[in-house]
Amino acid sequence: MLNKDIHGIMVGNEEIKLEIFADDMTAFLRDHASLDTLLNMVDSFSLHSGLKINFEKTKVLFLGNDQESTMETVISLARNRNITAKKAIKILGVHFTYDQILWRKLNFDETLKTIKERLNCWNWRNLTVLGRIQIIKSFVIPGFMYRAGLVCSHKEIVKEVNKIIFNFIWKGKDKVKRSALISDVENGGLRAPHLESIIKAQRIMCCKKFANSQQSSWKIILLHYLRRIRGRLLLSCNFNVKNLPVTLPKFYVECLQTFSEHSVSVREQGLNLSNSSRSSTVIWNNRHILIDGKSVFYQSLFDKGIVTLENLVTDTNVLLVRQDPNVLPFTPLEWFHLIQIFEALPTQWRKSLTSCGPKSGETFLWYNQIKLYLKNQAVQIESVLSKNVYSEIRAGYETRPTAQARFEEQFPDVCLDWNDIYKLPFKVIPLKLFYYQTFFETWHS
User: Fold this and answer.
1) Mind listing the pLDDT tens digit for each residue in 260-275?
2) CA separation (Å) from 11 to 3, 17, 72, 120, 362?
């Protein structure tokens, strides 16, 4: 039975009180009275069950701006049970704090130190380049990405980790361009991990989780931020995060910005209209439809069926704004908003709205419009796999090996199947390293 005397934090109309994963419990409490009630309930539970909370490992972190009014009372309640108030707390291995310097130190500086210590244990072994890359994939990437996949990771941190990784792979300075080494074998690389692409892939997978209907507290918070622009509808729109009329936490800005870079709605919806694009281009949150520099969303018009560009014309291909407003089901304010939207349309769209042929008549289903552009084709969001997203993003960073570029420059008339050349030695396992080091002249002690 829920205890009504324990008040959690309110996010819109939703209340978040408790998050539990395995034996790790995090309570979000609104006031000191709720903390007192919770601790008394825990004591009662311990008395009857014999199970006890380890108060020495229990920490309190104050949230919000109004901390001083409750701080003394909370500290007094906590001290009675040997609970300490901290500037930072650790939840499932990730540290949270308002102090950005402390946040970096706890989340990443300690991780970098651990990575260096771990790699030092392998440095004395006479490992091949392939072996060293496998060590990185097995022992470095998972540990770093556990935190980098959940919180923002600054560019200088990623740069430092890359330096550690490639210094370990080559035992010093790089012998082959990193942009070539990350490629697949048939493209002249050894599939070395590319951190930037891994991080971006995780950001997109976060958006995939957000798109499904499974309930979660973090989704409640993100939906609250996006409430003014219809929440998940955003993922089916041709949006630009910078133009949205909402303020988002930096982590979610990264997620949505990365998603938009690979969204079909962004890639395929240009300024040239056709019948199909007119019926699939969502008006709302559209980067090309700006009022005062911001994209728009009007809930009342959305509820009345104004969703795509096709909905701005009648069944006889006449612009709605050219109709008599008295015969249309819009209030004066909604009519004004319709005129605003029409005036904000790009000139090409305004001219071609009525010349795209008959309306499709299809019902717009926003979830079916959430697609990513992978390997030159549109993929429905529920079918998207992390490894495919990573490959797509990584491809944008890859370059051909310097040896190939020089050969083609010196012998432009010689046509070689480079893919077969790169793959040939990998068909015989012992020749892998010998070939790679000979071809790229990377022999080193």
Assistant:
1) 999 998 877 666 766 6
2) 19, 11, 26, 46, 36
H-type helices in 281-423, by residue range? 299-303, 332-344, 347-352, 386-395, 402-410, 418-423
- Please say whether the beta carbons of 411 and 303 come within 8 A: no
User: What's the alpha-carbon Rg for the chain, to the nearest Å?
Assistant: 28
User: Nearest to residue 290, comparing CAs of 322, 247, 242?
Assistant: 242
The partner residues of 85 in beta bridges, in order of sequence, read 60
Contact between residue 269 and residue 281 where contact means Cβ atoms under 8 Å apart: yes
d(CA 314, CA 322): 10
Looking at residue 32, its amino acid is: H
Q: What's the rounded Cα separation, in Å, for the pair 181 and 438?
A: 15
Cβ partners under 8 Å of residue 341, min gap 6: 283, 289, 291, 296, 312
Q: Tell the residue number behind the tokens 């605003």, with chain if given.
A: 340
Place of tokens 């499904």: 212
Q: What residue has token string 């008295």? A: 326
pLDDT in tens, 243-256: 999 999 999 999 99
